[in-house]
Amino acid sequence: MSANYQHELVVLFGQPVAENPTGVMQEAGFAACGLQWRYLNIEVSPERLADAMVGIRAWGIKGMNLTIPHKVAVMQHLDEIAPDAQIIGAVNTVRRDGDRLIGENTDGKGFLRGVRLDANVDPAGKRVVMIGAGGAARAIGTELLLAGARELVVVNRTAERGQPMVDHLKVQTNGDIRFEVWDGAYTVPADVDIFVNATSIGLYPDVVMPPVDLSAAQAGMLVCDAVFNPPETPLLAAARARDLPTLDGLSMLVYQGVIGFELWTGAEAPEAIMKTALREALGV
Questions:
Q1: Torsion sign across C-alpha atoms 178, 217, 255, 146
Q2: What sign has the CA pseudo-torsion 283, 208, 20, 97?
Q3: Under a CB-based contact definition with an 8 Å cutoff, are residues 145 and 137 in contact?
Q4: Sign of CA pseudo-dihedral 198, 200, 204, 206
Q5: Which of 41, 96, 101, 254 is most buried by its number of CB atoms within 10 A?
Q6: 65 and 125, same domain (yes or no)
Q7: pLDDT tens-digit series, residues 62-94
Q8: Does residue 2 surpass a pLDDT of 50?
Q9: In this structure, what CATH number is given to the domain that contains residue 228?
Q10: Same structural domain for residues 100 and 152?
């Protein structure tokens, strides 16, 4: 009996992509499920994205991830965009349905799954403060509002970036969301249930504490950090020093990958194996 050497392919498009650890996590999941699948990091420049997307269709690629700088530009090359990805205005995952390519955004969903499963917190009815107004913040904010957060306060250094995002999400989700300018050290109010760092402050190698004061935080306030390297950021260390519950950025990264795995394969993702592989890849 001859062996079956055919592999299904999933790819990551971005520039750069060499250091992206997602493939290690996904291939560990494929192997654990006995799937003949491979995950390839492919560096694609912005001017070659259209050509690369033609290749995706021609080669029958089963799925994709997108990272900087393609999360918005890829949308014009897809057949359908999921409703929440339309609200976010960016796609980080593409799944194939027959000959059709459908864009999804799993970043916010991954964050939300971590809050519910790892932190055991339901965001419905909660007051949330989130610092940052970039792509991660837009995805996280969208999913929190769709999940029924009572209020979302977005805090950012520049109103030029923060206010338009807030205005957009208010219209698209009909949620209670407002903007505050971040000037100096930000003191987290005492009535906040969930605090989220959706900036890159604290990301390796610039491992620093964001200018945030947790001294007024109520007992039990969940402190979340989207930064995954290192998993123990200065913000989370400061929260733990005050006996506040925390959620690290590895949770979001693993769960967004888990959701992508399930969208592509239709199989239940081996979460524990994927998380272990990711931690080993990051050396943590």
A1: negative
A2: positive
A3: no
A4: negative
A5: 254
A6: no
A7: 999 999 899 999 999 999 999 999 999 999 999
A8: no
A9: 3.40.50.720
A10: no
Whether 1 maps to a domain, the answer reads: no
Tokens, residue 89: 């205005």
Torsion angle, alpha carbons of 115, 136, 206, 279, to 10:
50
Residue 247's DSSP bridge partners are 224
Q: How far apart are the first and last CA of the chain?
A: 43
Quick one: pLDDT band at residue 233, thresholds 50, 70, 90?
very high
Tell me the two tokens of residue 51: 């050509």
Number of domains the chain contains: 2
Amino acid at 103: G
Same domain, 13 and 118: no
- 265 lies in which domain range? 8-105+252-282
Q: Are 110 and 136 in contact (CB under 8 A)?
A: no
**The model's pTM:** 0.91
Q: Which of 225, 219, 216 has its CA nearest to residue 195? A: 225
- 62, 71, 109, 126: which is the annotated catalytic residue? 71
pLDDT of residue 135: 87
Instruction: Give CA separation, 169 vs 109, 136, 143, 178, in Å.
Output: 16, 14, 10, 10
Same domain, 82 and 160: no
From 231, 224, 230, select the one nearest 247 (Cα to Cα).
224
- Is residue 71 annotated as a catalytic residue, yes or no? yes
At residue 5 the predicted structure's pLDDT band, cuts being 50, 70 and 90, is low
Does residue 2 sit within a domain?
A: no
Residues recorded for the chain: 284
pLDDT of 4 higher than 70: no
- Cα 169 from Cα 21, distance rounded (Å): 30
Tokens 């950012």 sit at which residue? 156
In a domain, 155, yes or no: yes
- Average of per-residue pLDDT values in the chain: 94
